[in-house]
Amino acid sequence: MATAWSTDERKFMHRALMAAERGRGRVSPNPLVGCVLVKEGQVIAEGWHDHLGGLHAEQMAIHDAETNGFSPNGATAYVTLEPCNHFGRTPPCTEALMWAGIKEVIVAHPDPNPTVRGAGIEVLVKAGIHVRQGLLEDEAGAQMRPFMHWCEHRRPMVTVKVAVDQNGSVDDRSQHPGRFTSEGCLDEVHRLRNECDAVLVGAETVVRDNPSLTVRRLEAIRQPLRIVIDPNDRIPKDSILLNDGEETLHITETFRGLVPLLNQLGDRDVQRLLVEGGPTTIHAFLEAGLVDEFFLVQSTVEHAEPVDAGINAELLSNAGLLRFDDEQWGDEIVQHWSR
Q1: Which of 115, 44, 45, 128 has the alpha carbon at shortest distance from 81?
Q2: Half-sphere exposure of residue 221: CA atoms within 13 angstroms, side-chain side
Q3: Contact status, residue 15 vs residue 46, Cβ threshold 8 Å
Q4: To which H or E segment does residue 11 belong?
Q5: 212-236 pLDDT, tens digit each
Q6: Which of 9, 58, 293, 332 is catalytic?
Q7: 183: burial class by Cβ within 10 Å (0-12, 13-18, 19+)?
């Protein structure tokens, strides 16, 4: 029988989800997690996982309560992910909840990580703490989608981003290489890049554009791993990617498959891969059925000597993607497709 959640309970868990968002782009390979402490119907503290090695959400919330003069003893904790019960970069969150005297824990989503998988809830129940789960579970799962995908498949979720002109062209051969989308759109691209653990392009993109593929338009806690697929060793030795000091994985051997590469990246804790390459690279991922999310940026610019991307609704649908919604990135409309 499904649990009947009250309006207030939903409100408190939604606030925990909002708190978790404050760690976006800062905690990978750990998931986004938020926690809200409620006592006598009032929120007394909130916490979130802010950075690797920092306090987990439950620990931050308990610290927040005590710092502001509230005792967490007897409170209810609303947590977006099952509390951990193992020692990692920090002590177990289950111990923090027990020591703080929390009387009830409401969990949005169970933790699929093999190091947890129900053990956190089991420990809390054995300690006499009342535990309920499943409140806003779908919303929490969507928020932690790259982490959930990595736990299930042990390889990264693949996100593709490509910008085209009004006729579906990715480049104008009559012009020097350059961006043709708005400044506002570029801000959103850097936000997306900041949320990914690695960025991948093909050799042609490097030869034509000489990109840096770093996060520059917002404060980044770390830069993504850059990956270049270059089986013929074409990219210039003075390319930015090979000389700016940031890590680049330059793949020059014959490329015989995408799945082995994704498995390799998964072993490196890469949970979300952003593909920003040209049509050849993008089509390779689509044809292999490996794209989980696609952002198609549509500009109003018209290229004089266009390079057709060959990307349309039929192709994306055949790759197992559905048009989720449309977004506004600066002056551009962006089709958001998702598996």
Answers
A1: 115
A2: 16
A3: yes
A4: helix 7-20
A5: 999 999 988 899 999 999 999 999 9
A6: 58
A7: exposed
